[in-house]
């Protein structure tokens, strides 16, 4: 495996960042499932995302004979290492044709960049953290991704494993048909009794998020998000800027009927954030380099608003504070979401992603009929083990 004819270039100019973005259309050419991004959104992501306020990112191109043949970026997320008490770097943006030499050159450069910064392991893929898209699809390739979920060719797994990466964690996507069986009528009687008792005792109510006062509502639920997921593997609290960025990016497409807040005596204890599957109309619009973005957006709105081709909803964020996790409230949130989706004409629901070791959430989903249908994997590789420390110790 010779890499002597491969040049690695760091993307330090807008032109090189565009080259990085545009390469995605090469490995996915002719793939009917891949969802192409809006180029303007990717430009903002790589240059203006609030993630850059607490992390360093290095983007790399692989070239052979003057042609781009692969991409990757490495991130040094200081907030992650401080919060998780780890010493790891992350990778993402890995795109490559089925060529091990190119993959080796890309990973070697990303590993060298992080090793020089003292990081002892590399983990990924992440865009940029667990608060964004993450994971490599390892099954379910003959299906399009849902909104804010990843897609990749099957051979990526082999390329990554050949570079010495092994499984760190699997992320699961659950699916269920959105019909009467998914709603409250199919709620397990025992779970309903526990839930009713808890709701009566603590004055729990579930209401829709008030989009007319979105800024106030966001401030109301921010502490819930960071508290409810604080002990999850790989979790990093969102900064205020990141939270605002996420909500701002979704403001034009959120459906208030699919957004829920759980309160106990007036205090927030849980949230349910579900989105229509925007990947479907975006894939049909198929933005690409050289096509005016206004035209791509016009086609997107036609498929989204007029044809309403999206049949899936994706449960993006759903959870309650730790002390309420065995009360059935989270399952009730899911059932209410399914009923709301059914009323809006959606026929399928995806709950994703769920950590494979998140047994309470998995059991809650499975108790009301959800089934795993896709798996995404996070990989990891030790870079070195200084002074006898394991790769993840600071």
**Alpha-carbon distance between the termini?**
34 Å
Low-confidence stretches: 387-391
Order of helices and strands: EHHEEHEHEEEEHEHEHHEEHHEHEHE
Number of separate structural domains: 2
The biggest sheet, with number of strands, parallel, antiparallel or mixed sense and barrel status, is: 13 strands, mixed
Radius of gyration: 21 Å
Q: Per DSSP, what share of the residues sits in E-state strands of 2 or more residues? A: 25-35%
Which class do the helix and strand fractions yield?
A: alpha+beta
Annotation, overall tally of beta strands: 15
Name the CATH homologous superfamily of the largest domain: Gcn5-related N-acetyltransferase (GNAT)
Q: What is the global morphology? A: globular
Instruction: Summarize the amount of helix as a percent range.
Output: 25-40%
Which features does this protein show?
394 residues; alpha+beta; Aminopeptidase; 2 domains; 13-stranded mixed sheet; two-stranded antiparallel sheet; 12 helices; 35% helix
């Amino acid at each position: 495996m010779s890499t002597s004819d491969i040049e690695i270039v760091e993307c330090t100019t807008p032109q090189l960042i565009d080259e990085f973005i545009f390469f995605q259309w090469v490995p996915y050419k002719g793939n009917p499932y891949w969802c192409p991004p809006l180029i303007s959104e990717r430009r903002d992501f790589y240059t203006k995302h609030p993630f850059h306020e607490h992390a360093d990112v290095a983007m790399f191109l692989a070239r052979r004979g003057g042609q781009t043949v692969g991409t990757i970026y490495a991130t040094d997320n200081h907030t992650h290492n401080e919060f998780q008490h780890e010493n790891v770097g992350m990778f993402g943006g890995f795109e490559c044709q089925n060529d091990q030499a190119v993959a080796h050159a890309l990973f070697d450069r990303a590993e060298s960049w992080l090793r020089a910064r003292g990081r002892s392991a590399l983990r990924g893929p992440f865009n940029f953290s667990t608060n964004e898209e993450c994971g490599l699809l390892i099954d379910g390739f003959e299906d399009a991704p849902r909104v804010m979920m990843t897609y990749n060719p099957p051979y990526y797994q082999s390329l990554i494993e050949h570079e010495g990466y092994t499984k760190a964690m699997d992320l699961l996507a659950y699916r269920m048909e959105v019909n009467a069986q998914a709603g409250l009528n199919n709620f397990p009687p025992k779970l309903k009794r526990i839930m009713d008792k808890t709701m009566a005792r603590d004055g729990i109510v579930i209401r829709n998020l008030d989009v007319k006062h979105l800024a106030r509502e966001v401030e109301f639920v921010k502490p819930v998000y960071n508290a409810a997921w604080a002990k999850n593997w790989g979790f990093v609290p969102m900064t205020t800027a990141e939270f605002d960025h996420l909500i701002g990016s979704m403001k034009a497409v959120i459906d208030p009927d699919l957004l829920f807040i759980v309160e106990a005596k007036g205090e927030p204890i849980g949230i349910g954030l579900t989105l229509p599957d925007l990947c479907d109309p975006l894939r049909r619009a198929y933005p690409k380099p050289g096509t005016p973005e206004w035209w791509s957006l016009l086609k997107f709105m036609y498929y989204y608003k007029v044809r309403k081709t999206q049949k899936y909803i994706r449960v993006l964020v759903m959870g309650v504070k730790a002390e309420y996790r065995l009360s059935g409230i989270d399952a009730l949130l899911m059932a209410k979401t399914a009923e709301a989706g059914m009323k809006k004409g959606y026929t399928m629901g995806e709950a994703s992603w769920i950590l494979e070791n998140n047994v309470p959430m998995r059991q809650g989903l499975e108790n009301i009929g959800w089934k795993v249908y896709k798996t995404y994997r996070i990989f990891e590789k030790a870079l070195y083990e200084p002074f006898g420390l394991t790769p993840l110790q600071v």
